[in-house]
Amino acid sequence: MSDSNIIWVTGAKGFVGAELCQRFADHGYQVVGTDTELSVGETERMEAFASEVQPLAVVNCAGIRRDATGLSNRINAYEVNALGARNVALAANSCGAIMVQVSSDDVYSSKLEEPVNEFDNPHPDTPYGKSKRAGEAMVRDTMHEHIIVRSSWLYHASGGRMKEVLDAAAQGRKVEARLDQFAAPTSIATYADFLVKAIEHRAFGTFHITAKGRASRYDFAAKVLEYAGYEPGSVLVPTTDRKTSENVVLESLMLEMFGVDLPTWEGDLLSYMRSQGIAKA
């Protein structure tokens, strides 16, 4: 095992990548972040960079987002989300680093009848989900020392849905919230803390990192507002759309088997908002 204290994060300017860079640094690691200036499609440059940096772990956050992936650009999605993941694994392999592949609940169908755990076979029904599943397979086929992490509705205070809802409340605006899309909201803090522990303990394999429970997008937004001291009903407009309804609840069975006690999504949210100084509760 490398005695390096360096964690290399690809896709470091993205939603998850930027937060992970900060949280790895908070845990005492030296963080090296790369983004579009070092494409995951450039195998030789990736391996040369790995040789220069000699990281303990490479965390692959690079990818084409779900909302930017469709039938018209699925080739690009596979190039980045699948072949790009393989290239990151090759780079990690070349310097003896651990590979962490950031995956998604989209590798499963969007309309599940019950929670799914790490032993359930993925059956994605979107081009994005299929490209992420292919990326997981590429990583597994390329190297042994890998950690594949799936999660759902990762949130943080500086962007995304949480900021959108709180900004609307502060400005006296209304915002729509879906009653028919369900998952388990999970804070970036809970997610990052697990990644640090998994790297330190060399806990290789596939893991679901989600808080316990199930919430609709309306439920989540309502709790954010409640904890911040607002009246949810004065801000949220409930909506539904049968065509885009979702139910994807991940069960963290592997962590339960290891004795890890994950928080409920409500407890995780309150703890996170308190840590950010935005909770009144």
Write the layout of secondary structure elements.
Layout lengths: L5 E5 L4 H12 L3 E5 L8 H11 L3 E4 L13 H21 L3 E5 L24 H16 L3 E5 L3 E2 L4 H11 L4 E4 L2 E3 L2 E2 H13 L4 E4 L6 E2 H11 L8 E4 L6 E2 L5 H5 L7 H11 L6
Parallel strand pairs: 1-2, 1-3, 3-4, 4-5, 5-10, 6-9, 7-12, 8-13
Antiparallel strand pairs: 8-11
Report on this structure.
With 281 residues, the protein is an alpha/beta fold. Helix content is 40%, strand content 17%. It has nine helices and 13 strands. The chain has helices at 15-26, 43-53, 74-94, 127-142, 160-170, 188-200, 217-227, 253-257, 265-275, and strands at 6-10, 30-34, 57-60, 98-102, 146-150, 154-155, 175-178, 181-183, 186-187, 205-208, 215-216, 236-239, 246-247. The chain has a six-stranded parallel sheet with strand order 2-1-3-4-5-10, with helices on both faces. Helix 3 links the parallel strand 3 (57-60) and strand 4. Helix 1 (15-26) packs across helix 6, helix 3 (74-94) runs parallel beside helix 4 (127-142) and helix 7 packs across helix 9. The longest helix is centred in the N-terminal third of the chain and has 21 residues, at 74-94. The chain is globular and about 55 Å long. The chain starts with 5 loop residues before the first strand and ends in a 6-residue tail after the last helix.
